[in-house]
Amino acid sequence: MEALFEEAFELDSQEGFLERGKRAFPERPVEQLKKGVASNIKQLPNGKWSWKYDVRAMMELRQFERKYHDEYHHVIRSITAPMLIVRGAESKVMLRGDAEQLQSMIEGSKLVEVPGAKHSVMRENPVGYAVLVREYLKARGI
């Protein structure tokens, strides 16, 4: 993952970001990488291409996760409240494997995926989101 962010934040073309993706994730199919790159970069007014989000903040988050990995996992495992983990079925941010790992760490939690949604689930499929939350609450008598 770090290979994506270690170099310049602005490139002349989308292909430059694709090449970074290939280096960072050599096991992934090129078509998957193309989709991921296309959904995570934007063209700037100067004609160059850059990430859609603050790369420095992402790097700081990764450093935090590495530094506090054990404590982070301990805190998550200590959650005892009922938990509904909602993931957009097409999300490239909350990957299915990460969501499944989170669910496995929280006893009694439930993972649901909202079809037709990426990361902004409530905005991209508000009805699908509401249906799943309502079903979850109803099953708990709420």
Structural class: alpha+beta
**Secondary structure: number of strands:** 5
Which residues sit in consecutive blocks of at least 5 with pLDDT less than 50?
A: none
Tell me the overall shape.
Answer: globular
- Largest sheet, order of strands side by side? 1-3-2
Order of helices and strands, N to C?
A: HEHHEEHHEHEHH
Major beta-sheet overview: 3 strands, antiparallel
Termini, distance in Å? 41 Å
Helix content: 40-55%
Number of structurally distinct domains: 2
**Number of helices in the DSSP assignment:** 8
Overall pLDDT: 88
Tell me the β content. 5-15%
Please tell me how large the radius of gyration is.
Answer: 18 Å
Describe this structure in words.
The protein is an alpha+beta fold and 142 residues long. It has two domains: 52 residues, no CATH class; 60 residues, no CATH class. The chain has eight helices and five strands. α2 packs across α3. The radius of gyration is 18 Å and the shape is globular. The protein starts with a helix and ends with a helix. The mean pLDDT is 88.
Summarize the structure.
The protein has 142 residues and is α+β, with helices and mostly antiparallel strands.
Features:
142 residues; alpha+beta; 2 domains; three-stranded antiparallel sheet; two-stranded parallel ribbon; 8 helices; 5 strands; 54% helix
